[in-house]
Amino acid sequence: MEYLISEGYPEAAQRFALEANIEPELDVDSIQERVEIREAIASGDIQSAIEKINELNPQVLDQDSALHFSLLRLQLIELIRKATATPDGDITPALTFATTHLAPRAPTNQEFLEDLERTMALLIFPPDHLEPPLKALLDPALRQDVAQRVNQALLQSQGERTKATLYDLVNYRSWANQKAIEAKKEHLPERIELGFDPAHNGHEDSPNGTSLHQADAMVTGWGPY
Question: Which among 30, 31, 72, 200 counts the fewest CB atoms within 10 Å?
Fold first, then answer.
């Protein structure tokens, strides 16, 4: 349920709740708004995404300068993508946007400055002959990464978990598998006894800051990996 809500599947969450006979507090409109924002970013319509974010909660971008810069940089990338799609493409809109919206922010953060310089390099080199660091800027994976960050920021602003527990369970399995590999075990047993004191609440060897006795309890019933 938590995963369906955080990842933006309101209809599936409602069906799940009905079948499980539970009554969760679902703000369907809020979930749908997050979905629309994420889809706008994934499609390259960054301006629309920014407008929708500000309509939903303007403080999200006001309070997270790094996220705001990432969105603006994506918008610049889309302008550059359009300008370089043809040999005689007009780069003026991209230059104007960079000068107006990103250049004033770049001096405030060294990482911003480096990201802007790297992005502007897309105007210099032919799109078909880009080095991997520049080519990655045009990869749809960058849109997905920013969209996920936006989704988490919106969830946090709404007082919701930014990541479903399901992700933690996957991490626990991966961690347990690694422990088994290090111990040279061919298969994971029904329960992995990690040798932790149940009364111990330390965090020095547990994934995601979870107490060790909690971690021990979580890695059960995984079967062969």
Answer: 200
